Every structure is written in structure tokens, then in C-alpha cells.
């Protein structure tokens, strides 16, 4: 993909192309402005005016989106039919902040050192904005590479957990720090979890971060007035404004649109609107009609718990297994000890509300695609999945199972051949893919691999394994992923590393909850079954497929970026 764009004649495509002794030579990457400076004066003006033919890129990131919701969305379904759909698309960590940090840098959590949603220890943060900033991740965002390659970059929506305004000495709200790598900066702060009543950022004429308030309309306001202030719709408005401003620019743009939906609510809410997953008023079910409202392509009444693969599966055969000397195995203590508090009625109600909640995102996708045009890559994905009663885990995320780690990855754009892709991709692969499409170099610190070549060549060899890692931490103030409304279980999921292939999933849990001790036990699942229904580690751990997974898992533990990349092939 990179060669397509870097070999197109014209310095605006960021490559110097010369003819030496009849041989085409591609020189070092330069920007259009640098080339203009190097050119003769009479050529400089023409070079500076040369339009950059590289494609625009729009990346739409959803929050806690589980894959069964995709079929309810008319535009997303149409997008999947018209573009490349990656059936084996996963996230490196099924938790908001570690996943987003990994996505922005192309690195694993053990490289970013962003392991949880909250900092926990201010002096030695392990998560949130504090850790993202402390450990040099701000300087590793792919957006900086895109800027250096000549792209105008924009960000709209949810950024990193705990990136928030603070209270100043005078009692006024102080904006959060400016984040390099973004020419336009419209981050919606944490109040947007509730849907209404929050603040967002923008850059003033001097490039400084300022705050804009989006007050919750009064209860007496019309549904249209309330929806105009709904977080997804404000995100849409910011996105369309950016695209309108830069549609006719000489240089291409990159825009990330990070919606808050369908994450569960926090904070502000209208009286009487009791759902934990608040849809826009245009999509809500009428009072007293739980099967009403807008669930998109599927009638709300037709959504059932049968759609949730593994729902209510008895967990007694999922207990992890110890591996001793000589290959001897023994049963380890169960970690799934949560009280099963999520009723069928509540699970179905929340499933339908989540379907209603994503319809406003789907309408945003429609408008974004219309504004983008055919010469723009549009990428749709999520920061993690979501379990809602699968494996008797109540509601939430963080587990290594398909419900939590598999996410949509749909791409439309120039020269994308429609159809399904079998290659394994991970959200750490997005950063190198974006850089590749832009004709920019991929830094050595990146742990993921570009899948840009597969956009035009569906059968090109690619990843065959996906890796996951997750760090246990007792919840601290500011944790947004307890999901108490659905009986969340984030607090009981142990630390683990895992690897999956088309044949199976191998997970090494650390049942010791301390930072220093280890107590390793394993779960192994075969994918000739419909989901992770039974741990087969005791009987299968010596079989070739399981031995292959174990070798890769052991090498992945603390791997350097180059090794991490190689292990997926």
C-alpha cells in the first residue's frame, strides 16, 4: 500500500523520484514544503501549489461495542458489504484505557505501561492519562508521524481515561494539557459518559486548549433539543465541521472520531430515563413498551439472548488448570466466583438498549461517509467488546474470550476490494496501517504490523495469531468500567497473557493478585466448538496445536517489538 502512494509522481506525495541512467530511483521521504524549498525558485511556487493526491483517512472508534450489534446498524452493515471486513479482528487488551493507549502508539500494554484505567498510585501510575503521559506515549502517537508526512490531523470524542479538566485556585475549570500530534482537538471529557451535560476542548487562535460547555437541556426541552446536545450527535457535528473545513485542502487529512457509545452511563441522566445504556431520545422505547424504539435493521422484539453466544454457559467446566513437572496437570482454584446477579430480563433489556444506543452512531457513519467521498478511507472498529451474561460473568469487559476481545474491523476506500478477510489483525496494527496508507515510515517501537496490503489483495498472507494481555488491579476512584448496572465483574478478572489461532485459545492466568507473586494456571479452548465452552487444557496441552500456542505464549511474555510482530505470523 505504501509503494502505491510513494511512487506516484509529484513531490506532494512525499517522495523524491529521479531518473538515473535509465533507472527509477525513489529517494528519502520529504514533505511538499521541503521539496519546494529544495527546488529552484521558479519551480517552488508550482511545487507548493501541487495538490497532494494521497487519500484522506477517517477512523471511527466505538466504545464497548460487542459484535452482535453490528447487524442492527443499516449503514455499518452496508459499509461491511462494500468494503473489507476482517473476521478475525481483536484488541490487545479488552479494557478502555490500555486498549486506546495501545491503539494510539501501536504498542502492547507491556510497552506503553498503561495497564489500567486509573493511575492507582500517583507517584508510580499504572493507568489513565497519568501513565500515558509519564511513560512517553504522547510522543509515540501515530498522529505525529502523519503530521510529519504532511497530513492535517483531527481528533473528536473520547480520548484517554482521566484526561480531564481540573479546578483552579479561583474555582474555575482549568483545561487539560495540550496533546501534541493533533492540529484540531475536540475531546469530549468524561461527563459525556452520561450522554448529556459535559465539556469539550478546542484550540483557540494561539493553539491553546480551551473548554466549551455542553449543558444538559432542561427536562422540559423537546426531544429534538435534547438530542442536539447528546454526546454522539455533538461528536458528529465536530467531525463534519472538521471535514468541511479541510475537504478542499491541498494536503490530506486524518480524523479520528471516538464515540462514547455504547458504553454504560455515568453521571448526568434525565429523571425517568433509567436505562444504563442511554440511547438518543429519537431511538428510545416509549414508556411501558420494552420492545419498542429503534433497534435499526432488527426489530427490538426480535433481539433475543440467543444472539449472545455463550450466554449463561455453565462455568463449572471452565476452571483453570495447573501444569506441573512432567506434564502433570491438576485443577486450580476457580476465579469466576462472582454471584450471578444479571437476570435474563435485565440482560435482554440492556441488549436492546445497547442496540438502540448504536443507532445514532450509525446515522453518524452515514453522514461521515457522505462527507468523506469515495477517495477517503473510512475505518470502523471498537476499543473492546463486551460480555452481557456470557460465561456467567454478568456484564462488562476485560476477559480473554471472544465476546470481549473480538471487535469489528471494516474498511472502505479507494481500491479496497469488497469481501471478508481471514487474516488476524489487532488494534495495535492500526497505527502502522494508517502510517502505511499515508506513505509514512513506521517507527521501530511499533509492535503491530500494517495490514494495508490486504485492503486491495484479500488473500495476501497476514497474521495468523492474536495476542492479548490484561493486568488485574483493584478498582480505584475514577474507574468507569465496573459496569455495576449490569453486575460488572472487572474486579475479579486476574492478570493474564493469551494467544489464539484459528484452532484455539490458550490463556495463562496469574491467580496471585499481588504485584510481585505469580501463580500460573491455564485455560485452553478449541474453536471447533461454538465458543469457549470447556477448558480442555488437561487433555489437550500436549497436542501439536496446543504446544504451538504454548511456545508462542512463552515467547510473547515481555517480548520486544520485533519479536511481538514476528510471533503473529
UniProtKB/TrEMBL annotation:
Coiled coil (UniProt feature): none
A Pfam family the protein falls into: Sulfatase
Domain of life: Bacteria
Keyword Signal: yes
Keywords, alphabetical: Glycoprotein, Hydrolase, Signal
Domain Sulfatase N-terminal, residue spans: 55-440
Signal is among the record's keywords: yes
GO MF annotation list: hydrolase activity
Family: Belongs to the sulfatase family.
Protein name: Arylsulfatase A-like enzyme
Organism: Nocardioides albertanoniae
Amino acid at each position: 500500500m505504501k509503494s502505491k502512494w510513494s511512487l506516484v509522481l509529484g513531490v506532494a506525495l512525499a517522495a523524491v523520484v529521479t531518473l538515473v541512467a535509465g533507472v527509477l530511483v525513489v529517494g528519502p521521504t520529504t514533505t511538499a514544503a521541503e521539496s519546494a524549498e529544495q527546488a529552484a525558485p521558479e519551480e517552488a511556487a508550482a511545487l507548493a501549489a501541487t495538490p497532494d493526491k494521497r487519500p484522506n483517512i477517517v477512523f471511527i472508534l466505538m466504545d464497548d461495542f460487542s459484535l452482535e450489534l453490528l447487524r442492527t446498524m443499516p449503514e455499518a452493515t452496508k459499509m461491511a458489504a462494500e468494503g473489507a471486513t476482517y473476521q478475525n479482528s481483536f484488541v490487545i487488551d479488552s479494557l478502555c484505557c490500555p486498549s486506546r493507549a495501545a491503539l494510539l502508539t501501536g504498542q502492547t500494554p507491556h510497552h506503553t505501561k498503561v495497564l489500567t484505567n486509573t493511575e492507582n498510585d500517583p507517584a508510580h501510575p499504572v493507568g489513565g492519562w497519568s501513565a500515558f503521559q509519564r511513560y512517553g506515549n504522547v510522543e509515540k502517537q501515530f498522529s505525529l508521524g502523519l503530521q510529519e508526512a504532511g497530513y492535517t490531523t483531527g481528533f473528536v470524542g473520547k480520548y484517554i481515561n482521566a484526561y480531564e479538566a481540573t479546578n483552579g485556585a479561583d474555582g474555575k475549570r482549568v483545561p487539560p494539557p495540550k496533546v501534541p500530534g493533533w492540529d484540531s482537538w475536540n475531546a469530549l471529557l468524561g461527563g459525556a459518559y452520561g450522554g448529556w451535560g459535559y465539556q469539550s476542548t478546542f484550540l483557540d487562535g494561539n493553539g491553546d486548549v480551551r473548554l466549551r460547555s455542553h449543558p444538559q437541556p432542561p427536562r422540559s426541552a423537546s426531544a429534538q433539543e435534547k438530542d442536539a446536545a447528546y454526546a454522539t450527535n455533538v461528536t458528529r457535528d465536530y467531525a463534519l465541521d472538521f471535514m468541511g473545513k479541510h475537504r478542499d485542502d491541498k494536503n490530506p487529512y486524518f480524523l479520528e472520531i471516538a464515540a462514547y457509545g455504547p458504553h454504560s452511563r455515568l453521571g448526568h441522566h434525565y429523571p425517568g430515563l433509567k436505562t444504563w445504556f442511554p440511547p438518543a431520545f429519537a431511538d428510545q422505547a416509549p414508556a411501558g413498551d420494552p420492545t419498542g424504539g429503534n433497534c435499526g435493521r432488527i426489530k427490538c422484539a426480535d433481539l433475543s439472548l440467543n444472539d449472545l453466544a455463550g450466554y449463561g454457559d455453565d462455568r463449572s467446566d471452565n476452571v483453570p488448570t495447573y501444569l506441573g513437572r512432567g506434564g502433570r496437570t491438576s485443577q486450580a482454584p476457580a476465579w469466576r466466583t462472582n454471584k450471578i446477579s444479571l437476570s435474563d430480563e435485565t440482560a435482554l433489556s440492556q441488549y436492546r438498549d445497547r442496540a438502540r444506543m448504536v443507532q445514532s452512531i450509525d446515522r453518524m457513519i452515514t453522514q461521515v461517509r457522505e462527507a468523506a467521498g469515495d477517495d477517503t478511507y473510512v475505518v470502523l472498529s471498537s476499543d473492546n467488546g463486551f460480555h452481557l451474561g456470557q460465561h456467567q460473568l454478568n456484564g462488562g469487559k476485560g476477559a480473554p474470550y471472544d465476546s470481549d476481545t473480538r471487535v469489528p474491523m471494516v474498511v472502505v476506500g479507494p481500491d479496497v476490494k469488497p469481501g471478508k478477510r481471514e487474516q488476524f489483525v489487532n488494534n495495535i496494527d492500526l497505527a502502522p496501517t494508517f502510517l502505511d496508507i499515508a506513505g509514512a515510515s513506521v517507527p521501530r517501537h511499533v509492535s503491530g504490523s500494517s495490514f494495508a496490503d490486504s485492503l486491495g489483495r484479500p488473500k495476501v498472507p497476514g497474521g495468523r495469531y492474536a495476542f492479548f494481555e490484561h493486568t488485574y488491579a483493584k478498582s480505584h476512584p475514577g474507574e468507569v468500567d465496573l459496569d455495576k448496572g449490569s453486575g460488572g465483574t472487572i474486579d475479579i478478572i486476574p492478570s493474564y497473557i493469551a494467544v489464539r489461532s484459528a484452532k484455539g485459545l490458550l490463556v495463562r492466568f496469574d491467580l496471585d493478585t499481588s504485584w510481585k507473586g505469580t501463580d500460573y494456571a491455564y485455560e485452553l479452548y478449541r474453536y471447533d466448538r461454538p465458543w469457549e465452552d470447556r477448558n480442555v487444557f488437561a487433555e489437550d496441552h500436549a497436542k501439536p496445536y496446543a504446544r504451538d500456542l504454548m511456545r508462542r505464549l512463552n515467547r510473547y511474555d515481555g517480548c520486544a517489538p520485533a519479536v511481538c510482530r514476528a510471533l503473529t505470523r
